[in-house]
Amino acid sequence: MNIIVCVKQVPDTTVVKIDPVKGTLIREGVPSIMNPDDKGGLELALRLKDQFGAHVTVISMGPPQADVMLREALAMGADRAILLSDRKFAGADTLATSYALSGLCRVLDYDLIIAGRQAIDGDTAQVGPELAEHLDLPQITYVADAKLLENGNLQVDKENEDGVQVLEVEGKCLLTVLASAFDARYMSVSGIMEAYDKEVEVWSADKIDVEEGKLGLAGSPTKVFKSFPKAMKAPGEVHEVTPEEAVELIVNQLKVKHII
Amino acid sequence: MDKKDYKNVFVFAEQREGVIQSVALELLGKARDLADALGEKVVAMLLGEGIKDQAQMLIEFGADEVIVVDAPELKDFLSEQYSQAVGQIIIDRKPSIVLYGATTIGRDLAPRIASRLKTGLTADCTKLDIEPDKDGEPEFRMTRPAFGGNLMATIICPNNRPQMSTVRPGVMQKIQRQPGREGIVTEFAPKFDASKFKVKLVKTIKADKQVADIAEAKILVSGGRGVHDKEGFDKLQALADVLGGQVASSRAMVDNGVMPHEVQVGQTGKTVRPNLYMACGISGAIQHLAGMEESDYIIAINKDKFAPIFSVADLGIVGDLHKIVPMLTERIKKELEG
Ligand SMILES: Cc1cc2nc3c(=O)[nH]c(=O)nc-3n(C[C@H](O)[C@H](O)[C@H](O)COP(=O)(O)OP(=O)(O)OC[C@H]3O[C@@H](n4cnc5c(N)ncnc54)[C@H](O)[C@@H]3O)c2cc1C
Ligand SMILES: Cc1cc2nc3c(=O)[nH]c(=O)nc-3n(C[C@H](O)[C@H](O)[C@H](O)COP(=O)(O)OP(=O)(O)OC[C@H]3O[C@@H](n4cnc5c(N)ncnc54)[C@H](O)[C@@H]3O)c2cc1C
Asked: How far is CA B335 from its chain centroid?
């Protein structure tokens, strides 16, 4: 079985801060990490590899620095890593990003493609389903569990708001995986050693099966018109008082608001 | 593609087991504003099996027309079946705007359609407006949080049609239901290509729905790590009971198993906007604020006067919730008894 796993390098948004004066994101000192859902996806691929034997290729589109993350994936147990890196991809929205990834998938052999549900920076959760459609593959999103059946089909648990759908899919498909579903393994010492002998292949746009006009900014129907830090509403009053006084303050306000 | 050929604001009217979801009505409310600003119509797409008699309700909540697709293939939500039907409606009817709920269904379906029709899609919007562009033409602007809620971005889709977005549940307002409101119901029969139906539903396992939906509550008493344990939440429950409200939780208390995920407020939980949100022992992490800061009135009780929750609270109390909450409960009980 050949598995492709899509991984994205992202800033750790839990430590991102906003510059209170300029109102912009402070990215300095913010570590870059493998997107958490993608790590869950890689873990699923590696479990299938452990159980049934599989060849796992991790792919990423991004700047040359993403090399570090792909080495981490190799150290965890992936067999091959390809980084799509080219100026022509710059400014891509999700349609153009998924289109570029589809061009890479088309020149690789695969039985299964795994993506993360959502990247924690762009936060759209759109690249997986858009990629599946470009490749004319069935998709299952919000995957909480997946196992290979004897008939060669995959049985997949899809999580939704009111429970779980158990689905069975025949043939090639694309899954988008939740980080919380698969606790990812750590890199092993031997894995780290081996990873440094393996090569992260860096590919440019002309190695993949795409029309250039559909890449990057030119191929992106959406544009960011503006971005701004979240407006904080003016804070209300904060009182350091005794419990008795606190109760008094709260009860008064609840009356003013007609809640009691 | 000529943009002028594309008209009307379409809403994907999500239903589950034949029940129209609240988010569909919220979208109709917003679609009504947008369509009025553009001088266009609101059209709902209602897909399922045996759902036709629900169309009138969508009209009463603001739709001018309801396109009904009634087919056994659409009984349960499956990506390909729904994508074929919605895709064909859009190709046939050429809407200018299509809105979907940002639910596990909408966020599965909408990107599939965007990629099929090669158009833009904006994710998880919290604000939608029509504003004049530089030539004075009306432009659809979609605003959404990104970077874990740290940044807001306004997205446009200038050259492709339809312009599509998924919209976060609980954010837009429904209009007051207008019983007897008139509209058109149209039936649409898609041509299904069953050779592409590769995913089968084996079974559905429902989560226990013991807990009432916190997104519907008018009053929420919400607890975080400062509540400590189940006994702490009993104190919050007693307060919620006298106020006629419900108890909610931060993720910290869900992750440690004290509270069920259904009552989690925040980015990976629910978005709520009750009349009163009482945050007890919640620090106010950005992912939590994302789910509650639109509440009408926020009271925070926290023993740390620097807790970020105070930046969104209308009334902040620095103190020990374990003392204040039981006293408050007793006091309100007395008030209500007169
Ligand atoms: C503030 C802001 C807002 C934006 N809003 C939108 C918007 O509403 N609509 C839109 O179309 N674009 C939007 N974009 C552009 C979008 O963020 C980029 O196209 C980004 O490359 C992919 O989107 P994502 O990060 O949301 O990924 P997601 O769709 O959330 O990613 C899902 C999965 O796809 C895979 N994946 C995603 N990107 C890559 C990659 N580069 N390499 C390998 N695998 C990958 C991963 O497995 C990932 O887990 C926005 C950009 C910014 C800066
Ligand atoms: C991707 C991602 C998604 C997330 N999604 C969510 C989400 O949906 N919802 C969510 O809530 N979080 C979410 N989080 C987690 C979030 O970052 C915080 O970790 C979490 O909200 C903290 O919960 P807390 O405020 O209960 O706990 P803490 O941050 O530990 O705060 C406890 C507070 O209680 C106060 N306190 C302690 N004792 C008392 C007392 N006796 N009286 C009064 N006050 C007291 C303390 O001063 C402190 O401020 C997410 C995180 C990530 C990375």
From this structure: 35
